[in-house]
Amino acid sequence: MALSATAVAPVAWRAWLGWLPRDARAFQILFLAALLMTGVLVRDFSVQPLQIALTFAAGIAAQAFWLKRLGLESRGFLSAVVTCCGLSLLLRSDTLWAHPLIAALAMSSKFVLRIRGKHVYNPANLGVIAAISLLPGTWVSPGQWGSDLALAVWLVALGSIVTGRARRLDVSWIFLGAYLGIVALRVALLGQSWAVWWHQLGSGALLLFAFFMISDPMTIPDRTGARIAYAVAVALGAAAWQFLLFRPNALIWALFLLTPLVPLLDRLFPGKRFAWGQTAVSEATQHGSGHSPETVV
């Protein structure tokens, strides 16, 4: 008996989904690498190919060094590639040595700055903050994105939600809703043109931050309610930094300054610890201070 089209379609769909990588970092790498190549070749991002190469070499080497130093199995290199992509996209420098130095520092932070077996900071976020705070001739250039890349970012972000690989994208939407809501309130109170709000909505830098930095499942609270509170807090912090203090790089600074809340929220509102490739790690790992393979990567 021949199978009907309606019966075959779900089977084919499941087979196609099974062919896709299970690790959400593969999608991140694909998108970020494509965006980086487009920026360098088409939009003339002010980053040199040698700077990019040195960034990846230093970041991957740092990951390998710490894995060997701590006697851990060789894993986590996808995370290193994601971090190096992020640093290459965000950070700008007049020198060749700043990018590899920061890449090594960012990857090392995963193994050094840890609380209860979980690394504290998003490596790319910490690296960018360290660079612009400590190294001369380094800066972040959010204006390079413009708004014409926003549609592509939206499509990729929506696609990543459909796959559900990371299971932590709720924080992205909560953050965006809270931040854009604050901007809308400000526009209404000041009587500004709503073009200001639409400009924020189409900001490539905002969307990249929401879907590829604050949503890092390894450095956000484990419990859903705590993640919602954390996302709202970062949105409020970013709005205060930009609209009250009138200082640049509000998103990156807000995330950096509020990241220490995550261990506190995890302690007050414990939840299942995220680990790449599995749903949760054991309670013994969650409450330990060691470097388990699942939580390092």
Textual characterization of the structure:
This protein is mainly α. It folds into 2 domains: 24-140, no CATH class; 149-275, no CATH class. 64% of the residues lie in helices and 3% in strands. The chain has 15 helices and 4 strands. The protein has helices spanning 5-19, 24-41, 49-69, 77-90, 98-112, 123-134, 150-163, 170-190, 195-201, 204-212, 224-243, 250-258, 261-268, 283-286, 293-296, and strands at residues 91-93, 114-115, 118-119, 138-140. The strands form 2 sheets. The chain has a two-stranded antiparallel sheet with strand order 1-4. It has a two-stranded antiparallel sheet with strand order 2-3. A hairpin with a 2-residue loop joins strand 2 and strand 3. It is globular and about 55 Å long.
Q: Give the N-terminus to C-terminus distance in angstroms.
A: 49 Å
Task: Count all strands and give the number.
Answer: 4
Order of helices and strands: HHHHEHEEHEHHHHHHHHH
Order of the strands making up the biggest sheet: 1-4
Provide the low-confidence segments as ranges. 5-17, 279-289
Q: What value does the Rg take, in angstroms? A: 20 Å
Q: Could you give a short account of the major beta sheet?
A: 2 strands, antiparallel
Q: Judging from the principal axes of the Cα atoms, what is the shape?
A: globular
- Structural class, from secondary structure content? mainly alpha
In helices, the fraction of residues equals 55-70%
* Mean pLDDT over all positions: 79
Number of helices in the DSSP assignment: 15
What's the structural domain tally? 2
Strand content: under 5%
